[in-house]
Amino acid sequence: MPIKTTIKKGAYFDSVALMQVAKKLNSVPGVIDSAVVMATKENKGLIKASGLLTAEVERAGENDLAIAVSARSAEAAEAAFRAAEELLNKKPAAASPGADRKAAGLDDAVKTLEGANLAVISVAGRFAGTLAADCLAKGLNVMLFSDNVPVEAEIALKKEGVKRGLLVMGPDCGTAIINGAPLAFANSVRRGNIGLVAASGTGAQEVTTLISNEGAGISQCIGTGGRDVKAEVGGLTFLQALAMLANDEGTEVILLVSKPPHPSVMKKITAAVKKIKKPIVAVLLGGEVKEKLKDDFYPARTLEEAAYKAACLGKGLKASKAKELIYDMNLKAEELAKKEAAKKRRSRFLRGLFTGGTFVGEAQVVLPEFTGTVLSNAPLDKKNKLKNSVKLSGHAVVDLGEDEFTVGRPHPMIDFSLRNKMIISEAKKPEVSVLLLDLVLGYGANLKPLDDILPPVAAAFKANRELSIVASVTGTEADPQVRSKVVRALEAAGVLVMPSNAGACRLAGEIIRLAAKAKR
Amino acid sequence: MELFNSELKVVNIGLESFRQGLNDSGVKSVQAQFKPPLSTETELLAKAAKNAARVDRANGKALARILDAKPALVGMGVALDTIPGMKRDLILHAGPPVTWDRMCGPMRGGIMAALMYEGMAKNPKEAERLAASGKIKYEPCHEHGAVGPMAGIISASMPVFIVKNEAGSNYAYATQNEGLGKVLRYGAYGPEVIERLKWMEKTLFPALKAAIESLGRIDLKSMVAQALHMGDEVHNRNRAGTSLFYRAIAPAVITTCPDPETAAKVLNFVNGNDHFFLNLSMALSKASLDAGRGVKDSSVVVVMARNGTDFGVQLSGTGDRWFTGPAEVPDALYFPGYTKADANPDIGDSAITETNGLGGFAIAAAPAIVQFVGGSAADAVSYTMAMYGITAGENNIYKIPYLNFRGTPTGIDVVKVAKTGILPFIDTGVAHKDPGVGQVGAGVLSAPAEPFRKAFEAFAKGL
Question: In chain A, which residues have their Cβ closer than 8 Å to the Cβ of B368?
Answer without folding.
Answer: 14, 16
